Amino acid sequence: MVELKNVNVHYSSGVDALQDINLRINDGEFVFIVGGSGAGKSTLVKLMTREITPTSGRVFVNGYNLAKVKGNKIAKFRRSIGMVFQDFRLIQELNVYENVAFVLRIADQSSRFIKQRVTDVLNRAHKARSKPKELSGGEQQRVAIARALANDPGLIIADEPTGNIDPQLSYEIVELLKDINRSAGTTIIMVTHEHDLVKHFGGRIINIQDGAITFDDNIGGSDEDE
Ligand code: ADP
Fold first, then answer.
1. I want to staple 162 with a disulfide (CB 3.0 to 4.6 A). Which of 20, 98, 131, 170 is the partner?
2. Ligand 1 centroid vs 93 CA: distance in angstroms?
3. pLDDT above 80 for 71
4. Alpha carbon distance 200, 84 (integer Å)
């Protein structure tokens, strides 16, 4: 569960990036967060991952009160979230298999567990021995999503995951996230500025504009009859 109560973020530059945000995302939801450049989307994501703390207000994620998550507790908290980024952030020197194994090693898992888990999350990925640069953008993002799943997080935050991917493949990436949401019950928050995608899939849409939530409701998707 993600909950923000009366949250304000004021940057020292003088910008009020978020103003009085109240938001609750329940376990198992799939939510799109949309808004133009400078609206406050990244600031919202950084609050949820505890990269920044609010100027005022409270943030709760996965049962943690983030005001109380400090020091060495931050890494443990972060492992409860799977992150997916626009630029994939795969380690170029490591192959696909090793990229996913890496996050499990950091989490101190046994070699036996790692072997099984990497195989499970990579599923039918046939390019486990390839390096990231040998893969297309869509393929790299699939690996990044597998990596996000490795620690079996209750929540995945995907920050513009389709930003560097051909429009055609973007739909497949959202389908993959939807599948994970449906099959594993993982809560998924996807930040995007791509209105066509959002209209196609529908569901709960939260629109941010000038640091405030201007819309938060369910809409029907245009793919509903498919
Ligand atoms: P979005 O992700 O929707 O493009 P951001 O959350 O990045 O929006 O930015 C919201 C506002 O806060 C913008 O006006 C931006 O210029 C400002 N901002 C973002 N990060 C910082 C920062 N580290 N310091 C000062 N201002 C910032």
1. 170
2. 32
3. yes
4. 21
**From the alpha carbon of 37, which atom of ligand 1 is closest?**
4
Other C-beta atoms lying within 10 Å of the C-beta of residue 218: 10
Q: Tell me the mean pLDDT in the region 104-109.
A: 93
pLDDT digits (tens, 9 = 90+) for 146-200: 999 999 999 999 999 999 999 889 999 999 999 999 999 999 999 999 999 999 9
Of 15-29, 123-137, 143-157, the one with minimum mean pLDDT is 123-137
User: Which is it for strands 16-25 and 2-10: parallel, antiparallel or unpaired?
Assistant: antiparallel
Cα 193 to the center of its chain, rounded Å:
14
Are 53 and 66 a contacting pair, CB within 8 Å?
Answer: yes
**Cβ of 207: how many Cβ atoms within 10 Å?**
17
Query: What is the pTM for the complete model shown?
Result: 0.95
| Distance from C-alpha of 205 to C-alpha of 190, rounded to nearest angstrom | 10
Regarding the beta carbon of 51 and ligand 1, being less than 6 Å apart is answered no
Six token digits for residue 154 = 């209750």
DSSP H stretches of helix in the chain: 41-48, 73-78, 96-106, 111-122, 137-149, 167-184, 195-201
